[in-house]
Amino acid sequence: MDVYTTEEQQVEAIKTWWRDNGKAIILGAVIGLGGLYGWRYYQSEQETSREQASEAYMQVVGALAAGDADAQEKAAAFIQSNDSSYSALVELQLAKTFVEAGDLVKAAEHLRSVQASKDDSLKATATLRLARVEAQQGNVDAALKELDSVTAESWKPQVEELRGDIQLRKGDTAAARLSYAASIAAASNPVVQMKLDNLPQ
């Protein structure tokens, strides 16, 4: 680096450097601070939105559980206005409400809607419930086909137990025995063991 012999030369070099680079430094600082502020604002808005969705979800679920007259309309409005996992959870609650009311067709509609969720756990939950609904409607083959779509190993105990229940309903004791055995092999469960033990030989 050049060594400046006088103070005036040093001051002049600083002025020249600032003239050449000052605008870029100021612009960079403004962009950096603006970006930081924008990111914090975005995160704050996201958090507020999540909190509002959570509060609205709790109100809708509470209304459904209490059996409010307009609970289903509130739930439908919530589903329309929210594109999140909360919507899928409300759909599951609605399906449960319809099952309890004996309207299995509407319950199945809501469960099929949840199957479109991006969350694999919600999809699997909806599929198992839909299989039960199909079986209750007498659509045993459709119920078994639904179960075939749940392939995650973690769901195998529940899937095989339900498959056994449906096969037993169909009258296929041998297939039910195999399904219950597969469920127990995946995860020991005294309830499933009791179902297996109670099958006619």
Automatic annotation (TrEMBL):
Protein name (record): Ancillary SecYEG translocon subunit
Membrane topology reported for the UniProt record: Single-pass type II membrane protein
Residue ranges of every copy of the Ancillary SecYEG translocon subunit/Cell division coordinator CpoB TPR domain listed in the record: 15-200
Keyword annotations of the record: Cell membrane, Chaperone, Membrane, Transmembrane, Transmembrane helix
InterPro entries reported for this sequence: SecYEG/CpoB_TPR (IPR018704), TPR-like_helical_dom_sf (IPR011990), YfgM (IPR026039)
Record Pfam families: TPR_21
SUPFAM superfamilies per UniProt: TPR-like (SSF48452)
Entry keyword Cytoplasm: no
Family note: Belongs to the YfgM family.
Organism, scientific name: Enterovibrio gelatinilyticus
Subcellular compartments: Cell membrane
